[in-house]
Amino acid sequence: MSPTPATEDRGPTGSAASFPKKKMSRRQKAKLSRGIQYGILIVIAVVIAFVADWPTLVDTFGRLDVAIGMFPDVITKALKNTIVFTFLGFVLGLAMAIILALMRLSSIGVYRWLSFTYIEFFRGLPALVVFLVMGFGLPVAFPGFALPQLITIMIALALVGSAYMAETIRAGIQAVPKGQVEAARSLGMSSTRAMITIVLPQAMRIILPPLTNELILLTKDSSLAYILGSSVDGRELAALARAEIVNTANLTPFIVIAVCYLVITIPLSYLSRVLERKYGSSEPGGK
């Protein structure tokens, strides 16, 4: 009797042949997922394009004559004032933040408690409340006490920004290896000199990207200065937009000042990314 073969080839249509289904690779799945997402976005954009009332939108937010009427004041006065307010508030806030961060790291308990209370208090308050207190609360509490508008805005921005920057600086100081301080002390440096000449310069490299982000936030917070009122020459972007909206009964000024804010914040965002790539992954004290 002839031996039975172990396998039998019944051809491509035979039931003995088994062909496993081919699975999609991870790259193919990712490509398919991206295609679906792009398709959904395109559908949403098309729906918006057909449903939106474009003539009304253009008449409400895009009147060219209203936008042109804001120049050159929107640049020579409003944009300039916004930059000045932000810069002064940032500089004062940074100086306060360094002091607060050092107090937070102090070995003296009272300093740590005062710094902690200040930081938590101003981080918990909305910036609007700080502006209202500085602009209206202090003159009521202390009759005859009135600061110039520039000083009021600068202090309000500094109070808000310093609380956030203090925590950033504290984290940067703690990121510097303790060996740096020990080496400086072994050379005869005092703690203060070691902090100023060794620790802070290295910490500043670490905290530059988040400080740039804080500058962007202060730029936007400066828009709250409009609640204090101002002369024509003292208006910043938000105050000018509010006045123009009242005069023209049109919302185009909002679009104009939005573009002005982007002119400030987009370069700062790019600078933050550059600094983060340059210093973000570097080790403190490294080459």
UniProtKB/TrEMBL annotation:
Q: Please give the Pfam families that the UniProt record associates with this protein.
A: BPD_transp_1
Q: Which residues form a coiled coil?
A: none
GO MF terms held by the record: transmembrane transporter activity
Record's bilayer topology term: Multi-pass membrane protein
Q: Name one GO biological process term.
A: amino acid transport
User: Which UniProt keyword terms apply here?
Assistant: Amino-acid transport, Cell membrane, Membrane, Transmembrane, Transmembrane helix, Transport
Q: Where is this region: Disordered?
A: 1-26
The listed locations are: Cell membrane
Location of the ABC transmembrane type-1 domain:
79-272
Question: tRNA processing: present as a keyword of the record?
Answer: no
TM segment ranges: 32-52, 83-103, 124-142, 148-166, 251-271
Question: What is one term from the GO cellular component aspect held by the record?
Answer: ATP-binding cassette (ABC) transporter complex
Give the highest taxon in the source lineage.
Bacteria
Keyword Transmembrane helix (UniProt):
yes
What InterPro entries does its record include?
AA_ABC_transptr_permease_3TM, ArtM/GltK/GlnP/TcyL/YhdX-like, MetI-like, MetI-like_sf
Query: Member of which family?
Result: Belongs to the binding-protein-dependent transport system permease family.
Q: What is this protein called?
A: Amino acid ABC transporter membrane protein, PAAT family
